[in-house]
Structures are given as structure tokens and as C-alpha cells.
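Researcher: Re-running this chain for the archive, since the previous output was lost when a drive failed. Same request as before.
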Amino acid sequence: MSKKLREIYEYDLIEDDGIDYTVDEWFNSIMEKTKDQLNVSDVSRMLRQKICSKVAIKRAIEMLSDDPFIGEMFEGQLMYNLFMGKEKYLKLYYHQVEPVLENAALLAKSHCWDCEQAKEEYMDIVAKFAKKIKEETEHEAC
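Model: Regenerated C-alpha cells:
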């Protein structure tokens, strides 16, 4: 059975002090989930807030492997959030991200976009992401 995030990271839940904090409620809710229970909204927010980055990155890669255009508010949002993720951990998963990017670039050409600008922005992120990985890989080889 998969462990909950609070067990993986040994986090304590934030105690209710009677004041309504939406962020605290969200944090407590994700801490009670397993990696597989995290949805695109959870993962996007985790990446933006740089919380539990390793789990968020792994889950984002899984989601993007299934649907490279997945997003909470717009197509490609998860790809963007992953690109902006915590670099310290993200580079550990570059080898898993590369095939996702290749697939995304290929599928984006024939994808039915709402507008040309959305397509261009998505392709730009995919290209920047691939470039970042290539540069890091070349840097490590030296």
C-alpha cells in the first residue's frame, strides 16, 4: 500500500487555530493523500509552491506522459509548472522528462488549439525545457 505524503516526508499536519487559512487546509489535504491520489490541481500547486517537489515532479511526469497538454486552468499548464519546478530536484528526473518532451512536441503540431498563441507558448516552453536539459546534460559531461 502506498504511503501518504505526511508519512513519506514525516510532516505534521497544520493544526486548526480557528482562523480560516485555505493554504493550510490544502496542505493538510495533500498530506493525507498518496502520490497516486494527487490530481493535476494538487501537483500544479505543489510545483508552484515548491512543496514535496520530488513527489510532485514524479506525478507530473506520469500525468504528462498520459496527456502532455494537461492543465488545471489552461492547456499545457502542468508542463509550464514542471518547467518552473525546483531545479535541484527536477534535474534528477531529466532522463524521464526527455521522452515526454519529445512526445509533446510531436503531438502539439497536430493538436487542436484554442488559438495560435496558445500553441506558440506551449511549443516555446517545450523547446526551452528541452534546451535546459540538453545544456545541463552537456555541462555534466564536461
